[in-house]
Amino acid sequence: MHNALEIDRLAKSYGDFRLRDVSFSVPRGYIMGLIGPNGAGKTTIIKLILNLIRRDGGEVRIFGSDNRSREVEVKRRIGFVHDAPCFFEHLTLRNVGRTIAPFYPDWDGPLFERLLRDFDLPPGKRFVKLSRGMKMKFALAVALSHKADLLILDEPTSGLDPVFRRELLGRLSAFIQDEGKAVLFSTHITADLERIADFITFIREGEIVFSTSKDEILGSWAVVKGGLELLAEDKRPLFKAVRKREFSVQALTAIAAEARRRLGPSAVIERATLEDIMFYLSRGNGHA
Amino acid sequence: MLKHILKDLRFHRRFLLTFGVFYPIYLGFFGSRLSTPTVAAIIGAFLYALVPIMVFSREDKFKAVGFSLSLPTTRREMLCSRYVLSWIMMVVLYLAGSLLMIAMPGGKLGPAKVFGLQTVLLTLAMMTLIYAALMPLFIRFGMVGLMVFLVAMQVLGVVFMLLRMAIGKSIINAIRALPRLIGSAAAALGPAGAAAVVIVLLVAVNMISFVISAHLFARKEF
């Protein structure tokens, strides 16, 4: 089985939110970044993977196994870092480890103790007394201690200091050196993904906009800056989104080479960052 | 299942110790002042059945259920361990409360009354009925379910009062006839036979409660 995670036509609705036919896969040995504005459905996808909510349709397969019919086997292979980790608040970190350990046949107690030391987490401290950043570190220590094959991280870097953010990214890169492992990383901080992700899935209003390799995205998407002539009918098909100012236009294109060829020196074409892409695609056409 | 039970015991250790000491002492003292064990059995059963619900409501409070469900386990296994742990808690509290009832200085109830077959079966029956009704409500509505149950009990009392006023004493007489009916059925079966029938019925009620709770828990989203 080549893919660590396969999501196929996943659907879920509640209230006025609908997740529609979401499909993407995370190959073994790679990091997939999941990006999108607030309320796009990132956390819903993660909850569906973990079976915390019921899907209306579609399939989730982890290392080839269905996440519902083979729930226990699948969850043993997942390490989950939630954006607001909720462990048993009044237990000490060491006791949380002792409580969780029996659930995982591959739990590595000495590794857990070592990770607590590496992350400067006092084993005798109660979980409730930890700062948000420390809670996140602890969740990561737990995920790594049971030798998960697939790490799922929901906004792991928000609230972390830059030093640990770098350290976390380094650990994720090291994690996938074992090519049997993979990471699904949901975040708003797209700079982190530019640093470590191999693939990017962008989701907006419950639908996948694209799911492809980061290099392909950064190679083919660009921000185009120019005069109002960019709004001409024959040029509009070049753009995915256009932001109009009083005397100028900024636009996002997914075909940078084609735009460069057709617009020539009349426009400035700059490489788009993931943040640019998220901004333009989320805000759509309008005034800047 | 054992790992779930140990997890819950560890997580709720302080809370359990507090209630594990307070409830038996309270009921031991209260029961020792009575000359008949029936009232102590009914009130005790009600309080003991509430303890597991209060314990599990703490997971809601600390939002730890979502985390528990992200562990490699099934909801059914988690729920099953809750039912088992609940019964362990209720029986331990009941035994401790009953022993204190006997041991309390000036107590009016001896071991023969406190641990009489009828009293034990009555307590188990009351605990089963209350717990079996509460657990599915709690699974579905959280602590609100507990409140709904308590309000429903009050409403039921009012309904009976109104029925009594409307229909006269016939409904009360019908209810009063119930223990006589059970008594004659028990006499026909003999003490051991009656106890066996009651235990089978209680197990069945627990099973039905579990099946309903499992269905509700499977549909719950976190």
CA distance, first residue to last residue of chain B: 21 Å
Share in β-strands of chain A: 25-35%
In round numbers, the mean pLDDT of chain A is 88
Percentage of residues assigned to helices of chain B: over 70%
CATH architecture of the largest domain in chain A: 3-Layer(aba) Sandwich
Structure overview:
The complex is a heterodimer of chains A (288) and B (222). By secondary structure, chain A is an alpha/beta fold. Chain A has 2 domains: 210 residues, Rossmann fold; 67 residues. Chain A is built from 10 helices and 15 strands. In chain A, strand 9 and strand 10 form a beta hairpin. In chain A, helix 4 runs antiparallel to helix 5. Chain A is elongated, with a radius of gyration of 21 Å. The model of chain A has no long low-confidence stretch (mean pLDDT 88). Chain B is an all-alpha fold and 222 residues long. Chain B has one domain. Helix content of chain B is 87%, strand content 0%. In chain B, helix 7 crosses helix 8. The radius of gyration of chain B is 19 Å and the shape is globular.
Characterize this entry briefly:
Chain A has 288 residues and is an alpha/beta fold.
List the helices and strands and how they pair.
The complex is a heterodimer of chains A (288) and B (222).
Chain A lengths: L2 E12 L2 E11 L3 E5 L6 H8 L7 E6 L2 E2 L4 H6 L1 E4 L11 H8 L8 H10 L13 H14 L4 E5 L7 H14 L6 E5 L3 H7 L2 E6 L2 E7 H7 L1 E5 L12 E6 L4 E5 L2 H8 L3 E5 L2 H10 L2 E2 L1
Parallel strand pairs in A: 3-8, 3-9, 6-7, 7-8, 12-15
Antiparallel strand pairs in A: 1-2, 1-4, 4-5, 9-10, 11-13, 11-14, 12-13
Helix pairs in contact in A: 4-5
Chain B lengths: L1 H10 L1 H20 L4 H25 L3 H6 L4 H29 L7 H4 L2 H25 L1 H25 L2 H50 L3
Helix pairs in contact in B: 1-5, 2-3, 2-5, 3-5, 3-7, 5-9, 7-8, 7-9
